[in-house]
Design brief:
By secondary structure, the protein is α+β, with helices and mostly antiparallel strands. It contains 14 helices and 20 strands. The protein has helices at 25-37, 88-97, 113-118, 156-162, 194-199, 201-206, 239-263, 268-278, 288-292, 312-324, 368-380, 395-398, 405-415, 424-430, and strands at 5-6, 13-14, 18-20, 42-45, 60-63, 70-74, 79-83, 100-101, 135-141, 147-151, 171-178, 180-181, 184-193, 210-215, 221-230, 282-287, 300-308, 334-339, 354-362, 384-385. Helix 4 (156-162) packs across helix 13 and helix 10 (312-324) runs antiparallel to helix 11 (368-380).
Length: 433
């Protein structure tokens, strides 16, 4: 194995001094202790779906691909113990076998559980928090090789810090998740005028278990998605129809549109309008994890911010104006979702109901001017960046946005006093240990 690593988007890479794929949690402890003893820093790579330099290191890089076992399932309580390297895709399938499910999911499932929770990955649902809120307990391997377990009772400070940790406290080798009984969702996709959606936004957000929409620049249409729990039996689309929609239309055709926009940026306005106009209605009734998840194959880079929910309409309108501006054209739509507040110290939704707005740029196109302009808008609303997506913040600009910043810092100093689990990204956004 060569000592190199590249993320999914292909725009972040590194050549660590050592890259290891441990086969057991005890091997993780030995590797970390040995690296720490010779002064190497340690980072962990999940599935590579972060767009930041969060993984990059010139020290030891761990990949937990082999730590993907389900360790225990308690169907009565819904508590499920898994190793940190298990992917959401595998987890969802196993949970369904036991009649269980994650209460909410994002729109891709290739991430590892440890990576998805460490960056506060989220779905949409005004009454549902991000994925890290499901962490009932967390097993951490520390710099000296010690293994500790933290939960709300044994160490509430560390538990609230470790749920969204950016990998800065230790290696998450196992977690216990609080799951729910498996459920079925009725999914309805429908294009609507964005002005009509914004005029009655609270009714859409509060009137559905899960509501989100996509909106292209240069188009007055919002592509809305409503997913609601139902007692109806599953009526999934046929494999052929699912392939036609999710693989051919949403990836192959959309990929061709993106490629054309990259080659001929002057065509992006008409491509935006055309893509929004041809979007049709869709309806299905299926297992929750099949409804939540959609394959994402078109390479891009992304910025996403968490804003106080009460600013949703104003922020959406301002970002929409930005995407209409000449010179900041993108072939991708913005994506808007909502989540409930939670109490993890570094959660972007900490202590406030939240609207997430994501902006994207195709791989190979200049993204910085657009993202910097978007970030100015997000900053004006007190936005907090998604930890796995591009932003230009530092510890100095972020500290005041997180009421419990110092409590996280105290836990970090206690669990990783030598800064073993840092890197340039962690030092930049959290400060040095």
């Amino acid at each position: 194995m060569t000592n190199s690593w590249t993320n999914w988007a292909g725009d972040q890479s590194c050549r660590p001094a050592a890259l290891a794929v441990p086969r057991s949690r005890s091997e993780v402890a030995d590797l970390v202790a040995n690296a720490s003893a010779i002064g190497q820093r340690v980072r962990v790579a999940g599935a590579g779906h972060s767009f930041t330099d969060a993984v990059l290191t010139d020290g030891l890089l761990l990949r937990l691909d082999q730590l993907d076992r389900v360790l225990d399932v308690d169907q009565a309580s819904g508590l499920v113990r898994v190793e940190g390297g298990i992917t959401l895709h595998r987890l969802n399938s196993v949970l369904h076998e036991y009649g269980l499910a994650m209460p909410n999911l994002g729109d891709i499932d290739v991430q590892t559980v440890a990576g998805a929770t460490a960056t506060a990955t989220h779905g949409t649902g005004a009454r549902l928090p991000n994925l890290s809120a499901a962490l009932h307990s967390i097993e951490l391997t520390l710099a000296d090789g010690r293994v500790i377990e933290v939960d709300e009772n044994s160490d509430p400070e560390a538990w609230r810090a470790a749920r969204v940790s950016l990998g800065a406290l230790g290696v998450v080798t196992a977690v216990t998740l609080q799951t729910v009984p498996a459920f079925v969702l009725e999914a309805v996709e429908r294009p609507l005028a964005i002005d009509d959606v914004l005029a009655d936004l609270d009714a859409y957000v509060d009137g559905n278990d899960h509501f989100e929409f996509f909106a292209f620049g240069h188009s007055p249409i919002a592509l809305t998605k409503r997913n609601n729990r139902t007692s109806q039996p599953e009526k999934p689309r046929s494999a052929a129809m699912r392939w036609l929609d999710e693989t051919f239309v949403q990836n192959t055709v959309f990929g061709a549109v993106v490629a054309l926009g990259r080659r001929r940026p002057s065509l992006i306005p008409v491509l935006n309008r055309t893509a929004a106009r041809v979007a049709g209605h869709a309806h299905s009734i299926d297992r929750s994890y099949r409804v939540f998840v959609t394959p994402r194959m078109v390479k891009m880079t992304e910025m996403e911010y968490a804003l106080p929910r009460e600013h949703s309409v104003d922020a959406i309108r301002q970002i929409k104006k930005l995407t209409d501006r000449a010179g900041l054209d993108t072939p991708f739509p913005m994506e808007v979702r909502w989540v409930a507040g939670d109490d993890a110290y570094l959660s972007p939704a900490y202590a406030r109901d939240t609207c997430y707005i994501a902006v994207h740029m195709a791989r190979g196109m200049a993204w910085e001017p657009y993202f910097r302009a978007a970030e100015e808008i997000f900053d004006s609303f007190g936005g907090r960046p998604h930890w796995g997506k591009r932003h230009f913040q530092t510890a100095a600009t972020l500290r005041s946005r997180y009421p419990e910043w110092e409590r996280f810092a105290d836990v970090r100093r206690r669990l990783d006093p030598t800064g073993t689990f840092g890197n340039a990204y962690v030092d930049r956004v959290l400060g040095t240990a």
